[in-house]
Design brief:
Length: 364
C-alpha cells in the first residue's frame, strides 16, 4: 500500500490572508481562471489583494471554459512564456485548476505539445502550482490529475506527481454564491470520486477511511445545502467532503462511471458531475456481484444500494431525458472499452454490458 499526498492544504475562512506569504512560489504569477466564477466568488480579488500587498507581479488569464481544450491551455502557455511567469495560481472549479496544471507543465517544457502531457516520461519539471477552489466538486486541489478535451472532442486525463498543487487554499466562503445547479453537479462529482474510490481495485484502508467520511458528509449535507444555498456551515461540510474525495482518487484513480459519463458530457452537454453520478448505482450493483465487501461503505451510509439510487434521484441527478442513436451507442461503447477505467473496476465488462448500462439510463 502506498499513500502519497505532497500538497500543503490550508483550510478555513479568509485562510489566504492568514498564510499569504506562502502563496509566493516564484517571481511572477500567471493567474488562471474562467470568465466569471473567480470574480463572482471573491477569490480572484483576494488573491490579487495578497499579491499586490506582497508586491508580486502577475498576469491574469481568464480564457478557461468548461471542459478545457488544447487551444485554451496553449494560449495560457503563450501568455506565461511571453510574460516570463514562473508559477501558476489556478482559481475556480475543476476546469481552471486542470488547465492551470497543464499550463504549468507546458510552460516549463516549451517544446511539448498538449498530446505530450499524456506520457509523463516526456517531462520531469513543471512550474509550481497554487490552487484556490471555488466549488466543492473535483478535488483537483489535492490530486495529480488533469482532464483536457482533445481536438476530436474526447476527454482524456493525464497524471503526474509534478501537478499535485504545491499549496492549496480551501475557503468555503468562495462557494456560498454558487447556484443550485452548479452546487448539485459539483457535489455529486465529489460523491462519485469517493464512491468510485472505495469500489476501485486500488482502494486501500486509508483511502476507504477518507471515502467513508466524504460520502457521509455529502449524504447528510447536500440536501441541506440545496435548501439553504448560502449557509456557510453546510458549505464547509461539502468543501471538506470534496477535498477528502480528491485525496481518495489521488490514491485510487477513478473507475467506470467516469468513463461512461464522459460520453454524455461530450455528446449530450450534461455537466460532468451528474453525467458521472448517473452510473454509480449500476456499477455498484456489478461490483457487488464480484466483490460484495466493496459496497459495504455505501450500504452502511445509505442502507441499501436501492436507497443509494433513490438518494441520487431525489437530489435531481436523473432530471434529464436522454436518448441515444445506435451510432452514438456504438461510439460510446467502443470508447469506454478502450479506457483504463475498465481494468480498475471489479467485475467483468464487455460491449453488451456497457451498452446495457447506457440503455438503462434512458429508462430512468
Amino acid at each position: 500500500m502506498l499513500y502519497y499526498m505532497p500538497t500543503k492544504l490550508y483550510y478555513g475562512k479568509d485562510i489566504i490572508f492568514q498564510h499569504k506569504e506562502e502563496i509566493v512560489l516564484g517571481e511572477k504569477a500567471i493567474i488562471v481562471t474562467g470568465k466569471n466564477s473567480a470574480k463572482l466568488t471573491g477569490a480572484l480579488d483576494d488573491v490579487i489583494s495578497v499579491l499586490e500587498e506582497l508586491k508580486i507581479p502577475y498576469i491574469h488569464y481568464d480564457g478557461i471554459g468548461e471542459n478545457p481544450t488544447y487551444e485554451m491551455v496553449l494560449k495560457g502557455k503563450e501568455i506565461a512564456l511571453s510574460n516570463e511567469c514562473d508559477f501558476v495560481i489556478a482559481i475556480g472549479g475543476g476546469s481552471p485548476m486542470d488547465a492551470g496544471k497543464a499550463i504549468a507543465v507546458l510552460t516549463a517544457n516549451p517544446e511539448l505539445t498538449p498530446d505530450d502531457l499524456f506520457d509523463m516520461n516526456n517531462y520531469d519539471v513543471a512550474l509550481p502550482i497554487v490552487a484556490v477552489p471555488t466549488t466543492a466538486g473535483t478535488g483537483s486541489e489535492v490530486t495529480p490529475f488533469a482532464v483536457l478535451t482533445k481536438p476530436n472532442g474526447r476527454k482524456s486525463g493525464f497524471k503526474s506527481e509534478l501537478i499535485f498543487p504545491d499549496i492549496s487554499y480551501l475557503d468555503p466562503k468562495y462557494m456560498v454564491k454558487i447556484s443550485k445547479a452548479l452546487t448539485l453537479t459539483t457535489a455529486v462529482d465529489a460523491l462519485s470520486h469517493a464512491v468510485e474510490g472505495t469500489l476501485s481495485k486500488k482502494s486501500t484502508p486509508l483511502s476507504d477511511m477518507l471515502a467513508k467520511e466524504s460520502i457521509r458528509l455529502i449524504y447528510e449535507y447536500l440536501p441541506k445545502v440545496l435548501n439553504d444555498l448560502e449557509n456557510i456551515e453546510y458549505r464547509e461540510k461539502l468543501a471538506i467532503a470534496s477535498t477528502l474525495a480528491g485525496m481518495v482518487i489521488a490514491q485510487t484513480g477513478t473507475i467506470l462511471p467516469h468513463s461512461l459519463g464522459y460520453r454524455i458530457t461530450i455528446h449530450k452537454g450534461i455537466r460532468h458531475g451528474q453525467a458521472t453520478a448517473m452510473f454509480l448505482p449500476l456499477i455498484a450493483e456489478e461490483v457487488e456481484k464480484y466483490s460484495p465487501e466493496k459496497t459495504k461503505i455505501i450500504k452502511d451510509i445509505f442502507g441499501t444500494l436501492d436507497k443509494f439510487f433513490v438518494f441520487l434521484k431525489d437530489m435531481g441527478v436523473y432530471e434529464f431525458n436522454i436518448d441515444f442513436t445506435n451510432e452514438e451507442l456504438e461510439l460510446f461503447v467502443n470508447e469506454v472499452m478502450l479506457s483504463s477505467h475498465v481494468k480498475n473496476t471489479p467485475g467483468e465488462y464487455d460491449k453488451g454490458k456497457i451498452k446495457n448500462m447506457y440503455t438503462k439510463i434512458t429508462e430512468i
